[in-house]
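Reopening this one. Same input as before:
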Amino acid sequence: LVRRRFVSHMILFTAAAAVSMLFLPAPAGAQAPNVVRFQEKLSPDDLSLEETFLPDKTKVTRVRLRGATETGQAGFPILPCLVRHVALPRGAKILGLTVDPGQSLTMQGHPVLEWQRGEQPGGQRQREPKPPEYEQTPDGPLYYPPDDKAVPLDPSLQQFSLWPPQAASVGETTELAGYEVVAIKVFPVQWASRQGLLSLSQAITVGINFSGGTVPDPKRRDYTSLSELEALRGLVVNASDVPDIAFAPIPEEFDAWHLII
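Same output, byte for byte:
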């Protein structure tokens, strides 16, 4: 049984003061950090909540956000996750993130969220050990695996006032067109398990603080690097920090005899 309901009873409050700052100490004598900022604007219409029941009859709230992926750590709630990419100079050192949730909406009445249960084979067989038919096939006897055993909700959640504890985190780093491409995971929906409250940040601003790094020389580009540069600009949220270069190198002149038939 599933009962879908969209967010309609929300209490508006301002959480601009609740700025999450995750700084790492910069070494003495280091250069002043640079900052890349981006903002994600979300509408309550993009958020949906479903009240459903697990196989063991536990009533949970299923949280979904249009256009977002989901967290997947076993034993922890499944919540929306936005992955955005930022271009930084090669060799740049990330000092930390600043997160401003801006204006938020809170939703009451959600004591238990659907969590990643991580079903794995358990140790009990509830199926009939010797089925009455089809015991043998041309490839051998049939295998009846044990019923799946779900991972319970992690009790350590009670230690956190909000989950996820940070509204944004740094993911993996790759390289493209001479820049470092850093994945930033944004969690616009957080859960206060003790109060059974969900909070949606409608305009969350993330700042990436970094220092150092080398920007590639825009004059030393060939066709391959130009195509990579174009792909980079289409991938990152700070495309304005990546130079927009378009040129066609002139082929070198050479003497050759041509036979025209």
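So the earlier flakiness isn't reproducible anymore. For the record, The first helix runs from residue 223 to 235.
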